[in-house]
Amino acid sequence: MFTTNAYAMAGGAEQQAGGSGMEGIVMLVIMFAIFYLLLIRPQQKRAKQHKALIENLKAGDQVVTAGGIHGKVVAVQDTLVTMEIASNVRIKINRSAVVGTKTEQLAE
Length: 108
Prior knowledge:
SH3 type barrels
């Protein structure tokens, strides 16, 4: 009696395991699609916006740096931005350190 039950259970397990190869591939594709939509695509969009912001910097823009410094752009060079943070107080920062403009901060 026990041998037939064990044999019947083993046969059912083999049939289920045979079809799981295709299901596993489909699940991997679905997981990659979810990661792409939730993680990769928004990050690419943010990177594009940041690049456009850096390229369009001009004198007179009110900006915020990654370190939280607020100031007004006085001069823009290839890789440097000169910012005025107080009266007659100017600092030079890397262009990539600018993370937003004050108008963007107010809009959010």
